Structures are given as structure tokens and as C-alpha cells.
Amino acid sequence: MKITVIYGTNRTEKSSTYNIAQQFLAELSDGDPVTEFHLPKDMPEFCTGCFACFSDPEKCPHYKYIRPISDAILNADLIIIAAPVYVFHMPGLVKALLDHFGYQWIAHRPIEAFFHKQALVITTAAGAGMRHAVKDVQDSFNWWGVGRTYTFKKAVQASEWSQVTEKKRAVIAKEVKATSQKIRSQKGSGTRLKVRMLFYLMRFVLKKYRFIESDAAYWEENGWLDGKKPW
Ligand SMILES: Cc1cc2nc3c(=O)[nH]c(=O)nc-3n(C[C@H](O)[C@H](O)[C@H](O)COP(=O)(O)O)c2cc1C
């Protein structure tokens, strides 16, 4: 399957998260294209809060960075965000990237293709904080309308991959295979209930309040206010 991976740091060989992500790519890519981005190298900016993207994403002052990432995730069957836990959450770089995609939340202008995609959040920690870290990304995937999101979290008790014990590596390899099988078997199996509920909730709100007229118009153009569904 076509995969786009965004790594939350520039670390590669030394990174436990990167090495686990590589195992997923080996399991799932099947020779199809894999597109990889590293933060901050490929998107070093913070959202300026200008609101321009809500009327036209191309007006984002950082569009030169956002466009290749946006194109790649749109072209992927599986979107992966892989990043370590920093102080119980995702590194700020990941949040800075996700802030740039607020315009495509279900509350605004969701993109139909996402409802048919899958996503995976990979994180590692020395010991704790993975639940919050995963949620930092999962919230965006759900609100982008991604059909199915999986998580892979591992306490590695290490600051780099070379320190991860053989025993732990064997467990990781087994769990990567099991999660990959789930991802493979669910491909094309539809949008999960939670995401559909977010869509219905926002349809109700937009219909009743039309609080951002351009969002309501976008939903209307797609026929979503008249009963059509994006999945
Ligand atoms: C700035 C910073 C903050 C960290 N915060 C946590 C934390 O809150 N909880 C934890 O268990 N490990 C924490 N760690 C350890 C890393 O999450 C852990 O070593 C991780 O596996 C590193 O991933 P990497 O090898 O992919 O870079 C932190 C590391 C750094 C550099």
C-alpha cells in the first residue's frame, strides 16, 4: 500500500521510533511508494494564527512546506506519524505541523478521500506518557475523518535503539507483525463509527448555525447537508 510517514524528529538510525516505523514499512509497503518527511527539516514553522487556510489552504504563509506533505498524505493509503514521547506528549514539532491542518477538520472542510484511508500513530517512551502522546495525534486523524486509526506504543527503557534489549526487540517485532496484519485486513473496510459520529455531529451544527459561512457552503457543495456521506 502507498504510505506517507512523518517522523517527529530528525533522528534516524539511533531512534527507536524510527526503527519501529521502518519495520512497519517493511511489512506493509509491498514495493509501493513510501514518502517520508522529518520534522523540523521538512516543516520548520509554527502556525501564525492568520486564519488564511480556513478560506484557502494555499494562502498559508508556510504553504511551500505544507503542500508536499498535504499532497503526500492525500496520495497515501496509510498515513503514519512516528514520534517519541517528550514530557508526556508528542514533541512540539508534531503539534506545530498538525496546527497547520486545522482547516481540514470535520468541523471545517474535511476531504472526502480521508474517510477511506487508514492511519497509524507510533510512539516510544522511556517509560510513561504514551497514552497522551498518542491522543495528541489521534485527535487530528479522527477529526480529519481518517477511516481507521491504529496505535503502536512501546516503553523501550532506552534513549536510543542500540540500548533496546534483544528481548524487547523480539516482542516489538512480533507486535509490529500483528498490528500490520490488522491494518492489511481492514484496508477498504469503511469508516469507523467514532469518525462517522463526528461527521453527523458537525453536520447538525453546521446546518443549524452556519457559523462559518464558507464551511457551510463547502459542505453544501459536497451534498453533505442534504444527506450525502463522504464514505
Ligand atoms: C526532551 C525529552 C523528553 C522526554 N520525555 C519523556 C517522558 O515524558 N516520558 C518518558 O517515558 N520518556 C521521555 N523521554 C524519553 C524518550 O521518550 C525515549 O527515550 C524515546 O524512546 C526516544 O525516542 P527516539 O529514540 O525515537 O528518539 C524524553 C526524551 C526527551 C529527549
Task: Please provide a written account of the structure.
With about 230 residues, this protein is of the alpha/beta class. The chain has a single domain, classed as Rossmann fold (3-Layer(aba) Sandwich). The protein contains eight helices and five strands. It has helices spanning about 15-30, 50-55, 65-75, 90-100, 130-145, 165-185, 195-210, 215-220, and strands spanning about 5, 35-40, 80, 120-125, 150-155. The protein has a five-stranded parallel sheet with strand order 2-1-3-4-5, sandwiched between helices. The chain is globular and about 55 Å long. The model has no long low-confidence stretch (mean pLDDT about 95). Bound molecules: flavin mononucleotide. Flavin mononucleotide (FMN) binds near residues 9, 15, 17 and 86.
Strand arrangement, major sheet: 2-1-3-4-5
Q: Can you tell me the CATH architecture?
A: 3-Layer(aba) Sandwich
User: Which strand-content bin applies to the residues?
Assistant: 5-15%
Under the CATH scheme, which class?
Alpha Beta
Number of strands: 5
How would you characterize the largest beta sheet?
5 strands, parallel
Mean pLDDT: 97
Number of distinct helices: 8
User: What sort of overall outline do the alpha carbons produce when their principal axes are compared?
Assistant: globular
List of distinct ligands in this structure: flavin mononucleotide
CATH superfamily: Flavodoxin domain
